[in-house]
Amino acid sequence: MTDDLETRLRAALRARSEEITPDQLTRSLDLPHTDAAPAHRSRRGSSWLVAAAAAVVVAAGATGIVLATRPSAPTPEPVASVTVTSTPTPSPTPTGAREQPRSAIPWGQVGAGWSAAAWATSRDATTATLYLVSPAGTRYAVGAMPNVAVYDITRDGRRILTGSSDPNAVLQWDVAAGASQSIPLGEPGGAAYTKPDGQALLTVDNSGPAPRLQRRALDGSVTMTYPDGTGLARQSPDGQFVVTGTTTGLSVYGNATGTLVRTLPPPAGYSECAAVSWWPDGRALTRCALGGNGVSNLWLYPLDGGGATTLTAAVAGSARPFGYQAAWPVSTGTLVQEAVGCGVGPLAMLTSPSTSTRITFPFKGVPDPNTVVGDVAYLVVSSAECGGAQARALVTYDVATGQSRVLLGPGANDGTVGPVAVIDPSR
Questions:
Q1: Region label for 402, one of left (φ > 0), alpha (ψ between -120 and 50) or beta (otherwise)
Q2: Which of 30, 148, 322, 396 could disulfide-pair with 163, CB 3.0 to 4.6 Å?
Q3: Are 358 and 338 in contact (CB under 8 A)?
């Protein structure tokens, strides 16, 4: 979750989800990770796209958050089993072989699969430790930070964006130096780096009739404002385009210019759409709502205006009555995140366009997919389903081998983990 405006609105929303009751939430998905952030999913209300736009106001930065609101739904099925130990009495940050000084970071190895995460002794702690974490679980303490969201990380791992004790600013961390610099935004919200090299920021402006993206220099000054309605968007991996969902399909804008390039209509029978991430061939993985009946399905959209191809085809009353939220191609097939009526949907392998087989994890809890790099899924595993989680762990799960590893939090160094940004150049 390193790369889109949906992969960091998500971190900010997840941070705020602690403040929302389960009755208020039903399902959300991701932060604007325009280089950048998933959170809890809201599925109630009249329009999930409208609800998503409201979420942008809360979480302006990272990957592009997508909320799905739904009319009242039947009681959801239990999500997949995943195991997390209870949080022990808060204690100082443990040290050991898996924790190394910042000076020991092997910069030549930092890249895809490395992550930035905030670790705290408890959810209620006021301060946290910002870590750079390797795919093998070696953690390097970058510095002490407020116990707030992590929004984004550059592809070389040398800079990280986090929240600040000032709600109208974000912190940019120089990882090698272990120092942070405050970037004023002038309004509450998060931020994400622009792709591919993080030479600017994307934030969300909520002062107009509809949330809209703003491009900012690294000092926080606004250099360009996109049209209204672009508040929920994803950058293409090469940084050329920003794709935003609308009630009538997708709109494609030039990332550097903010100029509308083209509009893409929704599939027949579908309405509200949102770009979720990117397929290896460059098509936008897009989630669209089916006929207002509470079902969402996934489509692959070429940005050149060609026709969309269906990836999932769930219908109301089927084995997956809410459809699907996200998908990733892996060596064993297609990994999907199922949509549910409340909280985070379970991971599964797609067996046909309308059916999937859920994955059984060796952890107890609710896995919130952050990103998938190759065959490895990076998950923030929570101890509760619909908000109010007391402990979170950063976990990897290898889809091909079925093996998992706890990188940070309960099972590694206790405490709890906040939102995570994972380096993934393909997203």
A1: left
A2: 148
A3: yes
How is the chain split among helix, strand and coil, in percent rounded to 5? Answer: 5, 40, 55
Lowest mean pLDDT among 91-95, 150-154, 388-392, 415-419: 91-95
Determine the pLDDT at residue 68: 29
Is the entire prediction scored with pTM above 0.85? no
Tokens (6 digits) for 321:
């009555």
pLDDT at 66 over 50: no
Helix axes 48-58, 6-17, angle to 10 degrees: 80
Residue 107 one-letter amino acid: W
Amino acid at 23: D
- HEC readout, 361-372: CCCECEEEEEEE
Side by side, the strands of the sheet bearing 159-163 are 150-153, 159-163, 169-174, 179-184
Q: What angle do CA 153, 155, 158 make, to 5 degrees?
A: 65
Average pLDDT over residues 300-324: 91
202 alpha-carbon distance from chain centroid = 15
* 326 bridge partner residues: 337
| Tokens describing residue 277 | 């991430």
Section 370-399 average pLDDT: 86
3-state secondary structure of 224: strand
Strands 139-146 and 99-100: parallel
- Give Cα 359 distance to the centre of its chain: 20
Of 155, 192, 149, 158, the closest CA to residue 178 belongs to: 158
Q: Looking at the DSSP assignment, which residues form a beta bridge with residue 323? A: 296
